[in-house]
Design brief:
Layout (H helix, E strand, L loop, with lengths): L2 E13 L4 E13 H14 L3 H9 L15 E16 L4 E11 L23 E9 L9 E9 L8 E5 L7 E3 L8 E15 L2 E14 L1 H9 L2 H10 L8 H23 L10 H52 L17 H10 L1 H10 L3 H37 L8
Parallel strand pairs: 3-7, 3-8
Antiparallel strand pairs: 1-2, 3-4, 4-5, 5-6, 6-10, 9-10
Helix pairs in contact: 4-5, 4-6, 5-6, 6-9
Length: about 425
C-alpha cells in the first residue's frame, strides 16, 4: 500500500451576531490512496442533493426570506453575464439584451454544512431575463459615430443603510459577455461599471451603473451611401466632354445623377430619427448634390452662350452681306457716297482711373463671361474634379479626427474601422 502526503483545506465557520468569519487551516498528514477513494465514495453515496438541501432550509425551520440577515445591513455582490444584445433602436433611443444576474450575500441562517451537501455552493434560484435600457444617441458624426447605452441596477425596497449594493470585487469584470458581441450596425467595444449613491425621499440608494460603448460598423454605410455617390458624380462630369451640340444627352446625364442621389439620400434618412442638427452624412449628400447641380448650372451657361454665339454668327453674316451690298452701291454709277466724322472725347485723368478701379471686378467677370463654351467645358473638366478631391480630403480628415476625439473621451485605445 502506497502512502503519500495530502494537504486538505479545512474551513471553520464561526458564527457571531454580526458577520461570519472564515478560517483556513492546512493540515498535513499521511493517508493511503484506498482511504481517500473510500471516503469519496461514501460521501457521494450519503450526501444530500441540492433540492433536498433547499427544502430543509426553507421549510419547517421558520426561515423568513423578507427579514434582513443582519440588522446592521448586508452587502450584496452583483455581477452580470451578458448573453446577447439583441437590438439598438435608434428611433426610441434604447437597447435590449438577454442576461443572467448573479446576486451574492452571506446569510447565517442558511448555513447547510451540517446536512452533508453534495456541493458546497447551492443555487437557490436563477433565471435568464431580457432587459431594456436607455441610450444617449448622438448622430452628429453618423455614420462615424460612437454611442453609449446605460443600465442601472438598484434595490427596490431597501436603502443603503439596509442593503449595500456592490459590484463583485472578486472578479476584474463584474459585467462580462460570453463572446464578442457584434450587431448588424454596432460592435460592443467597452463596458464600464461604476457605483453611484442616489438621493430619494426615503433615504440614499446604491445604484450600480453599467455603461456599454458601441461603435457603428461603418463598412455597410460606406458601401450603401458613400460609394454609390462617386459614380453618380463622375457620370455628371462626362457631359463636359460631349461637346456643345449634345445638349439633350448632357441634360439627361445630370438630371438622372441628381435624382439617383436624392432617392438614395431619402432611403438612408427614413431609418434615422428626426434631429435638429446637421449630421456627417447630411454634409456629404448635400455637397454631392451641389456638385451635380453645379454641373447642370454649367450646362445651362454653355447652352445659353452657344445660342448667343449662333445668333451673333447670323448677325455677322447678315452684316457682312449688307456691307457688301453697300460697297456695290457706292461703286455703281447711281450710288451715293457717305462720309462719317469720327469724334473722340477725352475724360479727365482722375475720373478715368476712378472708373477703372470701380469696374475692376466687373471687368474680370466680363472677361470670364466672354469665354467660349468650349473653354468653359475645358476648365470645368479640371475644376470640378479638383474641387471634389479637396472636399474629400477635408471631409474625411475632419470627421475622422472628430471620431478619434470622441474615442479619447471614452478612454478607448482607438476606433475600429
Amino acid at each position: 500500500m502506497k502512502l503519500h502526503k495530502n494537504v486538505f483545506p479545512i474551513f471553520l465557520q464561526i458564527l457571531f451576531s454580526k458577520p461570519i468569519f472564515c478560517v483556513l487551516i492546512d493540515s498535513d498528514y499521511f493517508v493511503s490512496e484506498d482511504t481517500v477513494a473510500e471516503n469519496l465514495i461514501k460521501r457521494k453515496n450519503n450526501c444530500t442533493r441540492q433540492p433536498a438541501v433547499i427544502d430543509q432550509l426553507l421549510s419547517g425551520t421558520g426561515y423568513n426570506k423578507l427579514k434582513l440577515p443582519n440588522e446592521d445591513g448586508i452587502t450584496v455582490q452583483v455581477e452580470f453575464w451578458i448573453h446577447a444584445i439583441t437590438s439598438i433602436n435608434e428611433i426610441t433611443n434604447d437597447f435590449e439584451m438577454d442576461m443572467y444576474i448573479n446576486e451574492m450575500w452571506l446569510d447565517p441562517e442558511l448555513k447547510f454544512d451540517h446536512l452533508n451537501p453534495c456541493k458546497q455552493n447551492v443555487s437557490v434560484s436563477y433565471e435568464r431575463v431580457r432587459v431594456k435600457g436607455p441610450c444617449d444617441l448622438s448622430f452628429e458624426l453618423f455614420p462615424l459615430d460612437i454611442q453609449e447605452c446605460h443600465l442601472i441596477y438598484e434595490s427596490f425596497n431597501y436603502n443603503n443603510l439596509e442593503v449595500k449594493m456592490r459590484w463583485n470585487e472578486k472578479t476584474q469584470n463584474p459585467v462580462y459577455t460570453t463572446a464578442k458581441i457584434r450587431l448588424p450596425d454596432f460592435e460592443l467595444i467597452k463596458i464600464e461599471t461604476t457605483r453611484v449613491v442616489a438621493p430619494y425621499a426615503a433615504g440614499m440608494w446604491d445604484e450600480l451603473h453599467a455603461k456599454f460603448v458601441f461603435e457603428r460598423r461603418f463598412i455597410w454605410y460606406f458601401m450603401q451611401a458613400f460609394l454609390p455617390t462617386y459614380p453618380a458624380i463622375f457620370i455628371s462630369w462626362i457631359s463636359f466632354s460631349l461637346g456643345t451640340q449634345a445638349m439633350p444627352a448632357r441634360t439627361m446625364l445630370g438630371v438622372n445623377a441628381l435624382l439617383a442621389l436624392i432617392f438614395q439620400f431619402g432611403n438612408i434618412m427614413k431609418n434615422l430619427p428626426r434631429v435638429s442638427y446637421v449630421k456627417a452624412i447630411d454634409v456629404w449628400m448635400l455637397v454631392s448634390m451641389t456638385f451635380i447641380f453645379c454641373s447642370l448650372l454649367e450646362l445651362a451657361i454653355v447652352g445659353y452662350k452657344t445660342k448667343n454665339e449662333e445668333k451673333n454668327e447670323k448677325k455677322r453674316k447678315n452684316r457682312k452681306l449688307g456691307k457688301n451690298l453697300e460697297l456695290n452701291l457706292e461703286d455703281s454709277p447711281i450710288g451715293f457716297g457717305q462720309k462719317f466724322e469720327k469724334r473722340i472725347m477725352l475724360l479727365p485723368e482722375n475720373r478715368r482711373y476712378g472708373k477703372f478701379e470701380k469696374l475692376n471686378f466687373q471687368t474680370i467677370f466680363k472677361n470670364v463671361w466672354n469665354w467660349s463654351p468650349e473653354k468653359i467645358d475645358r476648365i470645368s473638366t479640371i475644376l470640378f474634379p479638383a474641387c471634389f478631391a479637396i472636399f474629400n480630403i477635408t471631409y474625411w480628415s475632419y470627421y475622422y479626427n472628430k471620431k478619434l476625439e470622441k474615442a479619447a473621451a471614452f478612454k478607448l485605445d482607438g476606433a475600429n474601422s
